[in-house]
Structure formats: C-alpha cells, structure tokens
Inverse folding.
C-alpha cells in the first residue's frame, strides 16, 4: 500500500518541502502491515515477530529496489543516533520495568556471571578466532580495535525468540536465566564496546587488559548508580507530591520523561545509558509504580510495552530492508564466496564462544547450589537451551556494527562495507535459521513445555498476562500478594537456607521494608512473615 | 538542575559526537521541572499550565543567555518540522479522541459557524487592519501574502486557559462551544494559511477570493474524508482481527501508528493533516476504541492525553525561551516603540476581529434556536466568555509565524524578524495578561461556576474524571450509559423537537446503529428508546 503511494509521490513537489514526510509515511504503513501480518501468523509458532519484521522489510526493500531501478533499497537512511537515542532506550527500559524482580534477584549471581563473564569469554574467543582466521580467508585490513569490536558486536544476543517459546511457570529458573542474561548481556556488550573504543593501541602493554576491565567496572557501577538514583528520585517525587491528586496525565508524563532523562544523562556523562535506563526501569517498577493512581499503573505498563514493541519491530524492519542495500554489496572487498566464508567463520565462533561459557558456568552454578536438592540445578538439557537462546544476533549487533564500520550508515571503505554486510548476513542467518529451529529444539528437549505453548501465551516479554486479566493483573504482578509470598517462602525455605545469595536477599528485603518502601513507596509487607 | 549540568558540559567533547544529547537532556530536565511546578501551582488557579511553561521557559532562556554570555537563549533551534510533524499531531488527535462527541455533534452547526466563518471574518479584519495601520506606524516591507498570512496566524486561538476554568456540567453548551470552536478554529486557521500560500498574486482578480474559498472547501472536505476513512479502516481492522486475542500491545501500537499515519498521509497529499487527524481521533474513539480490550481502552485514552500534554508543554516552553532570542531582537527592523505599536495594533485587531463574529453569530444562533425555550440560548454573558476564551494566541500562531517568516527558525530579514518578535510578544501578552484575567472574568460573569471550580477539577481537556474514578470511568465516559441517555432524552425531547440539527442527528444515530456499529464496532443501543 505505502509503496504504491511512494512510487506516485517520489517525484512529488512535496518531497522537496518535507523530505521526512514520505519515508516516515511509508515506514509507518509498513510497520502497520508488519503488525497485521505478525498477528495473522500468531498461531504459526515457527515464525516470530522478529522474523516477520525482517521478511516484510526484505520484501519492502525489494519493491523499493525495483521502483528505484536498482539504486537503493532504503526507505530511511540508517541513523546511529535514531537507534541509540530513540529506539534502544524504550526497549531496555521496558525490559527493566517488566522484569520479574523477585526471580531476577534470586538468580542474580548466576545471571550476572552469564551476562558479564560470559560476554568477556565470548568476546575474547570471537576476537581471537576472527583475528586468526580472517587473514587466512584473504580478508585483511582490520585493525586490532576492529577485531575487539567484532568480538563485542557478536557477543550481544537476542533472546526474544526463545523467550516466546519458553513457559515461565513450568521452568521458572530457565526462563529467568534466559531473560536476565538477555538483558545484562545487551548492556555488557555495549559497555564493553565503548570500553574497547578507549584503548590506546599505540601504547599497548600488559596493563591494557586490566585497564579495559577497570574501565568496564567503572562504567558498569556508575551507570547502575545513576539509574538507581534517577529511579529513586522519581519514586520520591511521585510519592511526596502525589501528582495523581490533580492529574494522572502528569504522573505518566513524569515517569516517561524521567526514564528518558536517565538514559540521556548517562550518555551525557559518557556512561552506559543502556544499563542506567535498565536499572531505572527496575527501580521505577519496584517503587515509583506504587505511588501513582491505578489507571496510571496500568497505562504505564502498557505504554512502555508498546513503545518497546514498536522500536523492536522498527529495527528488524530496518535490518530487512538493509539486507538489500546494493551499495554496500558493491563496495564490499569480498567476493560472494569470501563473504560466505567470513560469515561462516563468525557464526562458528558465535557458537563456540557461547558454548565456552554456558556449559562451564552452568556447572559452576550447579556446584555452588549443590546443597539444594530440588529442581533448581541447571540440567544439561537446560544448558543446551540457554546456549541456543543466545545464538541469535539482533538489533544491538547491527547498531554496534554500524557504529564501528560506517559513518551515519554510509561507508566507502571496502573492508568496512564487507564487515557491515557480514554482520547483516550473520544477523539474518541466526535470526531466520536458528530462530526457525528454536521451536523444534525446545519441543524436543522439553516436550511438556512446548505442548503447553500452543495455547498461545506468546510475547511474554511485552505482555505478561492474557488480555482478559490485563485490567487487574498489573496490580498483582508487580509484586506477588502476601499470601502467595507466604506459601512460596514456606516452600522454598529449606531450599534457600544454604545459599549465600539468599541471605543477601533476605537482608535486602528487611532493609527494603524498613527504610526504602516507607520513603520511596511500595506495598507494605507487615502482615506477612519474614521469610 | 539541568542548566548546571549544561554549563559544565557545554565544552564537553561529547557535544561534538552527539550534538543532540545535550539539548535534549536539558530540555527534558526543564520539562520535568515544569511539570513539578505546574503541579505545585495547581491550587493557584490564576496561573495555568501554559503560563507556567512560558515563565519557566523564559527563566531557562535567561539562564542560558547568561551562561552563553548573551549569545543565545535557545536550547533547541526551532524546527518547523518538529512542530508540524511531531508535536501538533498528538495535540489535535487527542482533542478529537477526547471530545464529547454527543455534545459536539449536537452543537455542530454553531461550532462550525464559529470555527469556520469566524476565522474567515477574523482573518479579513486582521489582514485589512494591519495592512491599513502598519505602514502608518512606519512598518513597511510586507507583501499582500504576508498580510493575509498575518490574518490567519492571529485567527488561531488557544482556548485551553478558558476550558480549565469553565465547568462542563454547569454550562454544557458554553463548554462545548468553546471547546469545539477551539479545535475547529485551529484546523481552519492552518487550512486557510495553506490556502493563502497558493494564491497567485501576480494574476489577482475578482476570482481570487472565490478561489481561496474553493481551495479551502476542497482541503476541508478531502481532509475530513481521509480522516474518517483512516478511522474507519482502523476500527474495521481492529474489529475483524481482534488483536487483543493475542496481544494488547499490538492493539495500542496499531491505534497510535494509524493515527499518525492519517496525519502523514494528509501531509503527503498536501491536505490538512490537522483536520484529518482530528476526525481520525473522533472516529477512533467512536468505533475503534470499542474493539479493543479494556486495558487498551484505558491505556489509549491516557497515552493520547499524555502525548498531547507533553507536546503542549514543550511548545509553550519553547515560546518562553524564544522570547529572549537576542538575534531576532537585533535583526528586527523596528525600534522598541515601533514593536510596541505594532504589537498593540495586532492585539487590538485580535480583539476586534473576534468580537466581529462572536456577537453576530451568537445572535444568529439564538435566532435559529428561538423556538426552544430552555437555557440553550447563548446569553450575553456567555457571548462575552466565548469572545474572551478565544483571545489567547498559542502554539499554532507561533508555528505559523515561524513558517511564514523564517527559514528553519532563522531569519536575516529585518522585516521578517520584526514579525516573529511581534508574534512572540502578542502570544506572551495574550497568554499571560488575558490568561491571568480569565479567572476573575469568569468569576464575575458566572459566579456559581467559578466557586465550583476551586475544588480542583482543572485540566478538563486532558483528564476528564478525577483520578479515583479513572480506572472505571473511561468505560462509561466514551458514551453515556443507556439509562443516562434515556433520562437525557426525556429531558431534552421537547427542547430538540424543533431543531433541524436534531433531525439530522436522529437520522445519523439510526444509521449509526443499523449499519455503522455492526461493521465498525461500538456498544449496542437496543434496549434503549430512540430519542
């Protein structure tokens, strides 16, 4: 639809006056189309939102390529700022806002070891692997910084696909690990990518690795603190002033604006906006969302989910159209065979790099939890699923690759163009092929879970709760009710007794109840035993 | 807060890398500040959101002026596209979405005569008045097109201020007239402004006025039809596919995207996006919002209100900072006295131009409704309030003035700079002085209404319903419940018997119930007598 209009208007005089109007219209029309197709394919659980968006993008790209007679497949020129300033923040904030905090913090150490140590291991393996094999394939011209960047680019995972298939209630540990790692991993990759940019390669010595790690720790901690601070300030302001008294609109506006401000402030101070906005989201859902009116609470949850959803679809749609960018293909220094070789090498090291930390770290986690007797250990089947869940590369990889190898989406350097096209191929291949295979794999490994899923509880990440429950559910799901907590506490008291994480968690809850909640808001847990 | 950070970072290296980050951060921080101050001043009903935003903007402008040592007062450079593509659509869409359709359509003819004929009369008076008096004040250099543009620029009103003080339940007719006119008037001004741009002054003859009018009618009708079409398509798609089955997020996304698409399509076809998006909003709230899940209905209403709120605050904030733009003041061809004279002339003709249609058209309306005996006639006091309500000039005036007299917010022409500064002065003066006086005036003319308002039912336009009711209210407020309707119908049956508008309305309702609602969605009115 949009494309037909575009063809007609490409030569329109308006194009000169409002250059943005045409691409925005076309892109929104395609986005709508994508939503409708995604909905119609909902029951077909082999494809998912990401795959739909990429395919629709590719088709649109083809149509535009034909209309423009082979000149361009793009509707919008890739804008790194568009991605990092407008599209990424809502996605990450929503992840923080919707995360089941209890699960997340129960498995905090495991998630962190996967999400942080894992990225380090994966980055090292991919960097060294590509540095070792690329020249042998005749692909030369990349600097040491480029190789390290490649390592971080291909260490960021896209777990949406797997999350859509896993069942949160049946395998809570697995679900929370995959979800948690997906979020932390994104943040770590971006932080590490930025840390790599700061290495001075001319004065490289033994300290460099330590410097990168120190830089990483500094970025990680300050970003987290900033996010927590903004989240707490928002909660405090909302609680003290109680905007809802006069206007629910203002409550919502302040939540959205403060969330965005946290990201921008982090960027201002050269920190990691992605981490800041994630923790800001966690804090907002933990405190701030209790200080607003009921309707604002429902609305905020849906608004953040919607913004995240649109941003994600937008990115995959872009990746789809970008796959057909002739200019980059022509500029690339590699032949078709060479491109295939390089992409295969990257994919192989992606597989290897992930295996190299998932299995050892799982074994380590199981060892740490050896005193617990219940199903809390990560079985080998679960390890395979965790490994598989992080094989898909997505929007963050693309964005980082564009940041490293292009200047505002354009590159004239053959080597850089080759890297961009290879990134696109790896993202397309992993999303499409690995994505398609996720369902059968999970079916095979967890037969029961999979069968449960056919009833259509998809898209967990953005909508926890079926539509019918939605009006009331958020009031419960933000934090489980007292009675549920009590039962859970009884159930898991024996299990958790010997875990150090649990002790920290218990002290945190005491502190939270006594000092934090009275100041920053949240439901009281008075008539509930301290578990 | 934001400003302190800015000072520190103005020279930061990041500024070069991400030029947008600093101004966006500062602007968002100031927006948040604005919200908080607006909330704190809530009980003080002499000031309103617009006045707060302008004053905060002016203070921020002063601070920035001092920091930059007199170079600039701007955080963001005015971008006509930013306004017309991103800020205006949510405001107008929200107006259409939240409008009480029943009231609006009951008084349709009166609202249309105020909003359309009124703008024509006002435009003619202001254009001729300024054309006659400007040269006498020594202000020369404006073309005929400029004078006509000035007429339309100063015919667009900003009724938010009055709406915040009027009480919808006590003076329903007055409220719906002020609100309805405010919306139609915005649209008419923009459409007329665009029609003026198309006049060929070199071949001016008797047909020109007719051509402008024809052009206006064409733009008005096609834009309306496009808006209705997009609204109906959205309703139909939502009803047929029932997205909520799988994902409430998708429902919301499709509503937001289609609303925006309607605006962009209108702009693409050189129509009036403002009218299109308004009617799209009306249709969406009349049909589409019944086809979504309950939580989406609540969410959509709040989301649109929030987006509109942020956009409005943003614009007034901008006007505030722009008032201190030294460059424009220096470029202006007018002395301080000359500027005062020109501004006074404009303000005088604004007063006159509005009086010239409010009183005659009110008398005409009363004459048409002479058979009805109840309080449905517009009393003289009400006429004064309607007149006063439209004296404030706001965001649309500023935007149109920038469009006419600057190129992306910058002008080097002394005459154009003078017009921009004069527009700013008129907007500031009318918003601040007339805005401040609205409360006492309404108090004086409608003593009972005013006293009612001190309980704090402000900001009607964006939040109908106090926070406590919010979670359930939307389900009722979209269309009154059957029993209410029945009582109302009984009450007003005698009143409406003799009005032609009523007959049209009755046929429309029959048609709506029989054909439209079954196809496009909406509650059934079966067990309810046809009033």
């Amino acid at each position: 639809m949009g494309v037909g209009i575009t063809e007609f208007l490409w030569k329109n005089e308006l194009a000169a006056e409002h250059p943005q109007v045409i691409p925005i219209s076309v892109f929104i029309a395609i986005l709508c189309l994508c939503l409708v197709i995604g909905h119609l394919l909902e029951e077909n659980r082999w494809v998912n939102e990401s795959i739909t968006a990429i395919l629709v993008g590719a088709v649109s790209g083809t149509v535009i390529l034909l209309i423009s007679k082979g000149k361009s497949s793009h509707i919008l020129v890739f804008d790194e700022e568009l991605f990092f300033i407008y599209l990424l923040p809502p996605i990450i904030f929503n992840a923080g806002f919707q995360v089941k905090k209890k699960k997340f913090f129960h498995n905090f150490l495991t998630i962190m070891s996967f999400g942080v140590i894992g990225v380090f291991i994966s980055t090292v393996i991919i960097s060294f692997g590509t540095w070792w094999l690329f020249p042998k394939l005749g692909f030369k011209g990349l600097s040491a910084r480029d190789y390290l960047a490649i390592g971080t680019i291909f260490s960021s995972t896209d777990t949406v696909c797997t999350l859509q298939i896993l069942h949160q209630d049946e395998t809570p540990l697995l679900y929370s690990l995959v979800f948690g790692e997906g979020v932390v991993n994104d943040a770590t990759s971006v932080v590490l990518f930025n840390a790599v940019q700061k290495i001075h390669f001319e004065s490289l010595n033994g300290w460099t690795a330590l410097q990168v790690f120190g830089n990483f720790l500094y970025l990680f901690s300050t970003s987290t603190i900033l996010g927590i601070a903004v989240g707490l300030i928002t909660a405090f302001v909302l609680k003290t002033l109680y905007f809802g008294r006069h206007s629910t609109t203002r409550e919502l506006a302040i939540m959205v604006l403060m969330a965005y401000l946290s990201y921008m402030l982090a960027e201002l101070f050269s920190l990691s906006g992605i981490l800041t906005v994630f923790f800001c989201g966690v804090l907002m859902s933990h405190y701030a969302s209790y200080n607003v009116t009921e309707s604002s609470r429902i609305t905020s949850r849906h608004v953040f989910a919607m913004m995240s959803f649109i941003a994600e679809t937008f990115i995959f749609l872009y990746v789809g159209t970008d796959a057909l960018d002739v200019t980059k293909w022509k500029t690339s220094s590699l032949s078709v065979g060479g491109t295939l070789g390089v992409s295969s090498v990257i994919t192989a090291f992606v597989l290897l790099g992930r295996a190299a930390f998932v299995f050892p770290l799982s074994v380590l986690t199981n060892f740490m939890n050896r005193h617990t007797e219940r199903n809390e250990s990560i079985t080998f089947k679960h390890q395979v699923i965790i490994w598989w869940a992080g094989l898909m590369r997505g929007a963050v990889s693309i964005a980082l690759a564009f940041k490293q190898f292009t200047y505002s989406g354009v590159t004239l350097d053959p080597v850089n163009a080759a890297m961009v096209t290879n990134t696109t191929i790896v993202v397309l291949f992993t999303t499409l092929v690995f994505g398609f295979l996720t369902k059968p794999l999970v079916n095979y490994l967890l037969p029961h879970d999979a069968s449960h899923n056919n009833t259509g509880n998809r898209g967990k990440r953005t909508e926890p709760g079926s539509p019918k429950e939605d009006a009331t559910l958020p009031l419960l799901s933000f934090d489980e009710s007292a009675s549920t907590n009590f039962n859970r506490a009884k159930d898991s008291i024996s299990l958790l007794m010997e875990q150090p994480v649990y002790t920290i968690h218990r002290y945190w809850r005491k502190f939270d109840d006594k000092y934090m909640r009275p100041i920053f808001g949240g439901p009281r847990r008075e008539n509930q035993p301290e578990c």
Remarks:
- The two ends of chain A are 58 Å apart (CA to CA).
- The mean pLDDT of chain A is 77.
- Chain A touches chain B through 67 residues (CB under 8 Å).
